[in-house]
Amino acid sequence: MTDIERFLSTARLPEKKAAWRNLLDLTLDLKSKSEVRQDPTEGDPWHLTSVTVVGYQGATNQVIMKVDPSPGVTIIHGPNGSGKSTIADGIRTALSGSTKWWTAAEQKSSRSKMEPLWEKVHAARDAEETMAEVVLSRKGERLTLSCLISDDGEVVSHEASWVRASGETAAIDLGATSWSHALAGHPPVFAYADVERRVQQSKDLREYIENLLAFGGCFVVLNDRVEELSAKAALAKKSIDDATKEAKKRVAEIDEINGKLDPANIIKAVNWPAWIGEIDAWLEENELNDSGGLLPQVTEKHSEALSAALMRTVEAFHKIDSSPDSVKHRLANSLRGFHEHVVDLESPGVECPVCESEQADWPVRLRNSVMELADLEPLHLEAESALVKLKRSLETQFRQVISVLSASAAPIVTSPDLLDLARDRADALCLVLERYGCQPTAMARSKVLELQAVLETRDWWRACVEATSLSAFDKQWRLKRRAAVEDFVSTWREHSELASENQLWRATSACVKDLTSHLRDKRAQDFTTLAGGRVKALLDDAGILLEDVRLTTQRAEVKVQNPAGQPLSLSMLSAGQRNAFLLAPLLATIESGPFGFLVLDDPVHAFDDIRVDRLAAVLAEISLARRVLVFTHDERLKAHLMARSLDCHSWAISRDLETGVISLESTDQLWRMLLADAEAVRSLAPKNSVNGYLTETQIIRGLLRQALDIALHQSVVRNAVSGGRDVADDLALLDACQSTVARIDTAEEIITVPAGNKHPVSEAKFRCGNLLTLWNNAVHGSPTTKNDLKSEIEIAGKACSDLVGG
Question: Which domain of life is it from (predicted)?
Fold first, then answer.
């Protein structure tokens, strides 16, 4: 945050200053959220206490390995194929929730598009379940991470359960924390095979080293958040740009079509600025704020055509009414229809349907009466034609006028009652014409006159004028434009707030790049010093020194020199030197970060004897502050580590080739080696020396006291782990005691066992008796006599076995 404030204070351009201010505000916001977020990367480092794998890689059975979380070295040694990498990879998979490397998935071949040839198979063949789990602890807290893996080797679930010091248990979403960034920046598991296989090019080395620079989870979260918001703003801007492009295209098409329909009608072109700041103001400026639906085109011709059709119909009825007045004439049309029905009858009968008298010739007489009305035929045809045209006009012009007035989005002057009345009377007339045909019947005449009483009023004329205004050509043109830009308007309203910040977030992203470059250069200097120290520790005898490390956005520039001070190409390093060179940066940064342990799988690949010893010295130094687990088949590394480390546990690992069952068995521990040394002194120096600073008896008893102390330490650690107590607290109580007797008494109080079980410390204390004081005094040079030392060595061995359980 200090660096951001400094960049903000020195920025001159307003855009740059706004970007730095934006980045600072985002940093403060993330900081406030992180303070209330449960993040296991905050606080004291986590210590590894156990790892469990089931059906994972080469483990067909369940393998559980308990780990001493206190500082020291644990060696897991065995031949190739015994399951060492299975456990090491299981630790990494459970920690990260991924079967891939810490930083990125393995790139697929561009040629074959298939997985790399040497990619590991993480699900054991025929395994019912594939699972990897680790348990981490720190000061009364426990964090359990477990992964379930599918048959294709992909992690299907990654769960984290955090038991707080208060006893409260919570499920943690590690994706919402800095956990993955901590793993990438401070990888607690190093497997040479993975690193060597993935770091093949300069860009790979840059990624490997840049992650080890460990800008910190906060910075990575900040960078990810800026990238996320920048991407969202860019996407929002693109959505608006795409919608703008489509709207421009559709408006241009509408303008072209309407311009051809009425060349004399010209309306102002739509103004499209580079960025629309306020959509409603833009709509008003371009007369696009009326978003009503498109209406039928109503002109003065609509009312004229409707009025003319109505007048012709009324005049046709008037002509019929003006013909000679007789009942027969008035019923002429009905008589014609009646005659047509009679003709259609197969047997009309002899009874007249009018007078009910028997008149066998009544159909003939009806026919003659109809023929006598031939002089009215032209009038009836004219009326029928007028009704047809009136019906068509009602279905078109009349309906369009009604539709425009009814669909108007704006309030209209025309009374709704007038519209309802006109619609009802038009519907009534059309219903009669549909039922009886367009015949000038009395009913049709009545409905025409009722409609005329409405449509020949001043109110209806005004209604037609209003409909014409509402559906004016230019208005409809603008409505079509508005419909064409509707998607754009919706897109703008949805995305404009984010899109308006696109330029700001682009500038903010540039600020993050500047900050990254600044932090990279500043931390690369410290990193070069630290990594250079580890390179010197591992390769000084070969005269290989790390002079400088510089990272660009694409590559890593690493300057290495030979004993003569001449620059060396990395390609000139031997396999062992290359391994040491890749291991050195990780060992240089391991002391920071949230992990209080280090796991190394085959760290001495291609090492010579000198390199093995130099690595053992470095690991012994690191193990003073954290537990170092070393998986190796190399007996040289095992021997050098046990010689250099004061707290060293050794386990032999083996795997049944037929069943795939992996077994772990404790092998020579340091206390056993000390007892062996005591026996060697006893057998090789049977007589007391008169010239030595300490007598052989004092040396032997000092070794016995040290062996018992180491076994006691291991017993306390194991009991603390199994009992869920904090290891550091128990060891602090133990180390506060100055004498062996006091440490035994304290351990007896610390360690608890179930009722009925033997107490390991009590058993060892009873077995040793007053020898404890004798051994303790011998260390301080107190005079002593040579008793049965062989018996004392045996008693010490049995006491140590009591303490460690075998």
Answer: Bacteria
